[in-house]
Amino acid sequence: MSEGFRGIVQTMGLGNLKPNIVVMRYPEIWRRENLTEIPATFVGIINDCIVANKAVVIVKGLDEWPNEYQRQYGTIDLYWIVRDGGLMLLLSQLLLTKESFESCKIQVFCIAEEDSDAAVLKADVKKFLYDLRMQAEVIVISMKSWDEQTENGPQQDESLDAFIAAQHRIKNYLAEMKAEAQKSGTPLMADGKPVVVNEQQVEKFLYTTLKLNSTILRHSRMAAVVLVSLPPPPINHPAYCYMEYMDLLVENVP
């Protein structure tokens, strides 16, 4: 499947008519059906798209996507985690052209490192949107206040349960990987490739994802659509771990 998809990405289109965006459905069944090959295939496809200089859009919840008669009145929320959020802005504008979403408002959430950065970041983003002639509310969440906001509340409890479950699964996965490497006398291998696993980094990724999920649930539980910019899969990192991060990020998100 990966080889076939790679061939499609490399050959699709003609000249200037080559598409530059690949849209994929998020494989929500990967753990429910215990399909262990899905993480490697899915992450491999993402990496192939990045190498081919294609933007990637991953869609979750297609079965609940409204048709033209189901008008939405909520918000379209954009979480600008990775700084390049231009594609999300484009997608939000395209959604507003559809009858189902034309009554929605756009909210842009940005992450600031410090409280002192919040005002500057908000002003920069508002100016950027003004230059694009886009109507949107800009909300800045600082990393410092992030911890305080997500310490308590039902959204923290929901996210924490998912976090503990993901933490347990990853520990078991890494333990099996280490046992296999020790038994065979080879480096750590995942999906037939050598990998480097920094358990402190894995824990940091999980905790950051926990905070993101709590924040999204706090602000966007009633949103019509939630768009989140994602970092690319880490190099030489097990695909299984990346899928766990993504699962935790969108846990209970509409």
Automatic annotation (TrEMBL):
Membrane topology annotation: Multi-pass membrane protein
Pfam families linked: SLC12 (PF03522)
Subcellular compartments: Membrane
Transmembrane segments: none
Domain SLC12A transporter C-terminal: 2-60, 71-254
One CC-aspect GO term: membrane
Gene Ontology molecular function terms on file: chloride:monoatomic cation symporter activity
InterPro entries, per database record: SLC12_C, SLC12A_fam
Record's keyword terms, sorted: Membrane, Transmembrane, Transmembrane helix
Principal subcellular localization: membrane
The protein, known as: Cation-chloride cotransporter
